[in-house]
């Protein structure tokens, strides 16, 4: 039987045992989050807006293709890293999905996939690397991917109450993938013949999900306006989320006009509805698109005017700033489209200026994101947080030494998200 002195020495040795070290690689894997996908989406926004330019030069397609490959590289990096996180730190992966704030970013993987499909239509299909049948298959993969991602996340998110006074338009990310079905649909129809019977299915499914996503996101926008009326303009990291409000009206207008343009060819080719159904749809869509275009521009101005005064200029909040890119693609593309429809040359100039601003914004944000990543301000967990998930007894053993970290701050090293509802202690 050990004597008391031996037991005391044993306890002392346990308490003085060195803490296991955590590699930098492990801290990044543990700290990765779903908010990495907006970087790829912002990259996709660049080549989508560049593709709409009226005046093109020889090397422009090569530049767009370069951004397309960067987007795919970012997508693969994010998917692989989050997969490693799921395998190595399943508790952390599940924690991110269930989190009421970080969980809204999970569907962004589907939106990032949508930008890749659009890039494939623009660059891989014309060069003969993929066929129209492959693009058609990608469309149904996207629809299935959106459903399998959105509805589980909707069930998880709506299973808990949420404070509407902390609401931001970024919460609509739960619906965005279904709304973008219409945008993916008209891009897929570009490579399909109007007489192809499969085209009608793509057209109708695009309209179906565009209606579902548009109306649901508009409900979110109503809540957003109510929140601003109650609390004033969004402040700090949430100021970035104000630009997400441009997405639903902009992308809806873009989808309606382009889908109706294809309906003008698809419906008459097989005698659907009436002979003039396609033209009627198109005329109505142009009117609706013009109305929605005005709403999207208003939300952009509504977000940009107070932006610089409300934003916290902290490098650890740089990921939220990527909302300046992809939500604005819809109404920027509509600017060019309205120029085509009504023959207004001035809109081509406006579209060019907006596209150059998009490219400049991308280079600025990408550079700052690299700096933040290099300094460990984003995507990097604390050693204590990694050890809590690796060693079951670590939390209890160092309970008095490890500071308590809120769930909203834990994964990314206290990095605020664009739609987080927490506030700093001094602000409470």
Automatic annotation (TrEMBL):
The chain crosses the membrane at residues 32-53, 65-84, 104-125, 137-158, 170-189, 201-226, 238-259, 280-309, 346-374. This is C4-dicarboxylate transporter/malic acid transport protein. One of its GO terms (molecular function) is malate transmembrane transporter activity. It is found in: Membrane. Keywords: Membrane, Transmembrane, Transmembrane helix. One of its GO terms (cellular component) is membrane. It holds the Pfam family SLAC1. Coiled coil: none annotated. It is a multi-pass membrane protein.
């Amino acid at each position: 039987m050990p004597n008391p002195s031996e037991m005391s020495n044993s306890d002392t040795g346990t308490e003085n045992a060195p803490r296991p070290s955590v590699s930098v690689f492990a801290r990044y894997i543990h700290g990765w989050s779903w908010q990495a996908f907006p970087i790829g989406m912002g990259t996709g926004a660049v080549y989508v807006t560049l593709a709409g330019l009226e005046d093109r030069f020889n090397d422009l397609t090569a530049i767009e293709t370069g951004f397309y490959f960067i987007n795919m590289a970012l997508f693969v990096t994010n998917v692989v890293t989050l997969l490693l996180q799921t395998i190595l730190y399943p508790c952390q992966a599940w924690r991110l999905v269930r989190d009421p704030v970080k969980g809204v970013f999970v569907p962004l993987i589907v939106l990032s996939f949508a930008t890749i499909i659009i890039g494939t239509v623009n660059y891989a299909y014309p060069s003969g690397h993929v066929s129209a049948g492959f693009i058609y298959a990608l469309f149904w993969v996207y629809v299935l991917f959106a459903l399998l991602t959105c509805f589980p996340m909707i069930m998880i998110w709506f299973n808990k109450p949420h404070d509407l006074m902390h609401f931001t338009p970024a919460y609509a990310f739960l619906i965005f993938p279904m709304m973008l079905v219409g945008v993916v649909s008209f891009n897929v129809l570009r490579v399909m013949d109007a007489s192809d019977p499969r085209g009608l299915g793509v057209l109708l499914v695009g309209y179906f999900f565009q209606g579902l996503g548009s109306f649901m996101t508009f409900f979110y926008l109503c809540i957003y306006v109510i929140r601003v009326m109650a609390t004033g303009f969004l402040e700090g990291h949430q100021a970035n989320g104000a630009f997400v409000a441009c997405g639903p009206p902009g992308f809806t207008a873009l989808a309606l006009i382009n889908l109706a343009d294809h309906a003008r060819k698809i419906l008459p080719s097989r005698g659907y509805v009436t002979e003039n159904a396609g033209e009627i749809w198109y005329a109505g869509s142009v009117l609706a698109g013009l109305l929605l275009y005005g709403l999207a521009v208003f939300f952009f101005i509504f977000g940009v005017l107070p932006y610089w005064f409300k934003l916290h200029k902290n490098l650890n909040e740089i990921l939220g700033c990527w909302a300046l890119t992809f939500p604005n693609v819809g109404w920027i593309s509509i600017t060019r489209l309205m120029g085509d429809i009504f023959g207004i040359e001035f809109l081509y100039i406006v579209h060019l200026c907006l596209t150059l601003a998009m490219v400049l914004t991308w280079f600025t944000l990408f550079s700052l994101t690299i700096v933040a990543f290099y300094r460990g301000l984003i995507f990097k967990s604390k050693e204590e947080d990694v050890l809590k998930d690796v060693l079951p007894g670590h939390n209890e053993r160092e309970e008095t030494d490890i500071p308590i970290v809120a769930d909203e701050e834990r994964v990314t090293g206290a990095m605020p998200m664009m739609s987080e509802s927490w506030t700093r202690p001094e602000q409470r």
